Amino acid sequence: xxxxxxxxxxxxxxxxxxKLGQRLDALLAAKxxxxxxxxxxxxxxxxxxxxxxxxxxxxxxxxxxxxxxGPDPLEGDRAELTAELKKAAPDNAMIGECYRRVFPERLxxxxxxxxxxxxxxxxxxxxxxxxxxEDNLAAAFSITAGQDDRGVHYATRxxxxxxxxxxxxxxxxxxxxxxxxxxxxxxxxVLERFAKPDLENFTxxxxxxxxxxxxxxxxxxxxxxxxxxxxVWLTALLDVLAAAKDDPASGGDEFLIGLFxxxxxxxxxxxxxxxxxxxxxxxxxxxxxxxxxxxxxxxxPLASKSADFKEFFSDHWGDLLRAGLTGLERxxxxxxxxxxxxxRDVLTSMTTQLSQIPQSNLLSSDTLFHLGDAAIAAVAAxxxxxxxxxxxxxxxxxxxxxxxxxxxxxxxxxxxxxEGLDEIVTDAAGVFAEYPELIVDxxxxxxxxxxxxxxxxxxxxxxxxxxxxxxxxAASGTLQAIAANPGLLDTRYAKLIAxxxxxxxxxxxxxxxxxxxxTAIASTAIQTLLNNPALFDQANSNLAIxxxxxxxxxxxxxxxxxxxxxxxxxxxxxxxxxxxxxxxxRVQAVAIGAATDxxxxxxxxxxxxxxxxxxxxxxxxxxxxxIGGLVAAWARGDFKKIDPATPAFRELLASLLAAATEQAA
Amino acid sequence: xxxxxRFRPALxxxxxxxxxxxxxxxxxxxxxxxxxxxxxxxxxxxxISSQLGDLPQKDGERSAPPFTESNRQIEAFIxxxxxxxxxxxxxxxxxxxxxxxxxxxxxxxxxxxxxxxxDLHTDRDRALKHNAEHLIWWFSQSANDTxxxxxxxxxxxxxxxxxxxxxxxxxxxxxRDYLAEMRAWIGLAAARQTTSLAEARKRLxxxxxxxxxxxxxxxFELLKEVNxxxxxxxxxxxxxxxxxxxxxxxxxxxxxxxSDSLGAHPQNATFDAIVNRTR
Lengths: 665, 279
Known about the structure:
The complex is a heterodimer of chains A (665) and B (279). Chain A is an all-alpha fold and 665 residues long. Helix content of chain A is 70%, strand content 1%. In chain A, strands 1-2 form a two-stranded antiparallel ribbon. In chain A, a hairpin with a 2-residue loop joins strand 3 (389-390) and strand 4 (393-394). In chain A, helix 22 (447-458) packs antiparallel against helix 23. Chain A is elongated and about 150 Å long. With 279 residues, chain B is an all-alpha fold. Chain B has helices spanning 9-27, 31-52, 67-80, 85-101, 105-113, 123-130, 132-141, 149-168, 173-192, 197-211, 217-224, 238-259, 269-275. In chain B, helix 9 (173-192) packs parallel to helix 12 (238-259). Chain B is globular, with a radius of gyration of 25 Å. The interface between A and B is large, with 86 and 101 residues.
């Protein structure tokens, strides 16, 4: 006795086989029709007299029959033919017609048969080849189909047919293979979609793979209820995507595949949702759902207008949502409860503006994420920011353009590797996200271009790795400094650092400095300048550069070469600190050349005195402190020029050496 | 009868039956493929028959159906399979060349016209469809003793189009060779259809110069021989066919060059030597 389930299975198998047989027959028939050899023959060819011969024979005929009485086949056309034959190239059609009338018997020659000649030649060359055999004869004349312009060949299509029928069978009988009810729904849903068109009709790989991906994604979404509700954020995201997919404006099934062809989904899941699920309240999932849905719906028509933006958005939609989640996490329920539309507006505004900015695809995932985070934070602090116009443009656009333009400038883009530039700009965006107050003032929306862009430009002549190190230290340090001291925005601080970075770059390029030392010096200078920003800002020259030049000049002239590596960096730091504290009177009003000369003199003398104590009352790490102390005393006006013989100087030196020893201890 | 404890006859019979049923169902449905295969074979035979006369038959074999019957059967099949363009489009091309070979130009044109080029996927079928206009003209006029001005113009178009076809079909040498040979014949015919000696010489040289492009250095070496070497070659290989058919073209060109005193000299040395060989 066969069980009902077995009988059902047998019927299902039989149905599948019948279907397979029918479609296989159609496919094999197509293969036969397309690929079968085809006998092609050449037509018979006229082999009678040529036009040249006809002309000669007609001329002779006219000559031979001139003045002869009797029936004339040319009748009234003789005179016309005579005239025609006097031409260099008589009319072929007329010659032919006259010839037919005069010499009809000469045109009865049997036409030439190229195929018969071929058979004769074949027989002569290969007498053993049996031409009475129909197959041999057909083989001698038939021609193969040649190259097929389709990417998927028949063998593969037969395989696809089998897969298709199996998928249909699997969709109808998924319970046989999968016991877990939830997984079964997913499998069934995917297989149903996969098997919907006849797979063997795909003749190119691209649409086939697209269909496979589409079926899988949409099948999963169709069965999303099967995933359960324990992952509330995942459910929320799936609901959002399903809603966006169902929106007619989004392009339906194609919308999903457009989103998923990039990196958005994995990044969102790996970096965003799992974290959000741990830290945010479940009831915020609904709010997120609304925000995400609006973001996707806003993006859909924008993406459909531009292929570039479509690709960009499919790469980055996850980054924007992740930034939204981070914003939610950071600013919490207040962001949703007080102004629930704010987060949505930031994200949709970003999307809209990005779609209008050329080269926005130069922004990397991390840059975009930090930018989103920064924008959300800034708007959370000052909601009106979103509607603010800066120079006739929306604030958001100015902010985004500032980043895009920074990385898009040719001089910069060509000087840095893509990864290097990403790192620097992402670092800058990270500072914005950390200190949103930097961009809360609308006028600062273009800060990154002014600060980071200037620094990048100043070091762009260097090999990429050194440039990247200096620029990262300088850009990040400058922004951090500005964030900590907003007053710096009203000074030349950023420009001084950019110029200083440029000078460092020159020194690295001519091998006066190593890239490593230059990076350390840049960090040192950024921090040290903060000790007295006004002094550096108001000086007639860039004092930081004067210090740098002076120390390096001394280092170069020092026969012992003591000022290298960390000693060099620390000496520059010590001199900068000394000037920040006491340099107003001595160097503020001096031009850079004179300042450098002054500083060179005092640093050189200081080095001479301090180095004489090495191994006695001083070790090398203590050297910068002693030089800095002597420069500070000079700047204070304790002496104009070092005189080692004076008791005051000996006392000063002794105290500095003692301090250095104490510090070392 | 004692059976093994592992062997269960009822189960064996059930699954064997199921398997048999499966194969029966699977392979019972290959009628369409078989039908197409028959149409292909019949039309090929009819094509040869139309060109060479009735095929030599062995005892007991029935003769090939006339082209009309083959044409009728292809037509009936196409009508019975609407919407299956992948199957029917190549059959239409087959039908068209069958009709061409039997001087049914209007019907051949109708057959060509009813195929969309997008439904054709092989170099051979696409090339035939693409050059249908020239094929139709040539098959209808090739045996004509006198060309009109219109024929001269169509010959120029055909020579140009077939040059392009020849140069673009390097990946499908058999159809390339066929069209190249056709171009050579048209060129030689055109040389017979001018009353200017210089023009006739130019046409003959052009016909052979373009034709040379399909031959390899090895081909030229063998073409220098009076006869095709018979050992170690497959009689139906494309290379052998190309050379044997070329010999007919060159012999014809040599006669034409000699009888009309054209003094033509193709650029290729082998061709030049053959065409100017004294008989």
